[in-house]
Write a structure and sequence with these properties.
This protein is mostly helical and about 210 residues long. The chain has six helices and no strands.
């Protein structure tokens, strides 16, 4: 388990860093052609993408360990840090302050998870292991891409066939719907690790 976690952790950080670096390079050209605000926005997105991917991986590992008490504390501290950063930076630096606050907030999430989760995250590149994980995960990646497309096609259709105002109204309705679904979704996050453990105890590894 530690070997899989550490190899996946290293791969996630590496890929996220490469993608973020490519976005920063692209931001240099965008800034020259479209203006400073677009370049800064893209650079901000690059840092957000890196820290968000890394934090999401760490949270998944903590959930797999069923450390829900830690996750609750993390959510509280993350919310407090985010609120303080936004209040302080937006007041003085406006939009750029908001960008900085979001980057620092996601950075706080990542370093807090790595430092205080109690789970060992180490640099480990095991290519044979990663190759076997790719074989299992490629289908999940494809399913995720298809799901992303179908989850976005309604918004794209409304924008193209009606107008942006209609999209705004539709987004409000969808936000209310997602709020209703928040409780069962959070419940599934808690129940899922226990179901996996029960399945592993009930069957042999070869049967699974």
């Amino acid at each position: 388990v530690d070997e899989i976690r550490n190899s996946s952790y290293t791969f996630t950080l590496f890929v996220s860093a490469v993608l973020s670096a490519a976005m920063i390079v692209a931001a240099i050209f965008v800034q020259k052609s479209l203006g400073t605000i677009y370049g800064v926005s893209l650079i901000t997105l690059a840092f957000l993408s890196f820290f968000q991917r890394a934090s999401t991986f760490c949270i998944a590992m903590v959930r797999a360990e069923r450390r829900f008490d830690f996750i609750n504390r993390f959510n509280v501290y993350s919310s407090i840090a985010n609120a303080i950063l936004i209040v302080l930076l937006v007041q003085w630096f406006k939009l750029y302050g908001y960008y900085a606050a979001m980057v620092l907030s996601f950075a706080f999430n990542f370093f807090y998870l790595v430092s205080f989760s109690g789970i060992s995250f180490r640099w480990k590149w095991n290519w044979p292991l990663l190759r076997s994980l790719f074989k299992m995960g490629i289908v999940l990646v494809f399913v995720n891409l298809v799901d992303t497309f179908f989850m976005s096609v309604d918004k794209l259709s409304i924008t193209a066939l009606i107008n942006v105002k209609a999209l705004g109204i539709y987004s409000i309705v969808m936000l209310a719907s997602n709020t209703i679904l928040m409780f069962p979704n959070n419940l599934s996050v808690i129940v899922f690790p226990y179901l996996n453990e029960g399945l592993c105890n009930a069957y042999q590894a070869n049967d699974i």
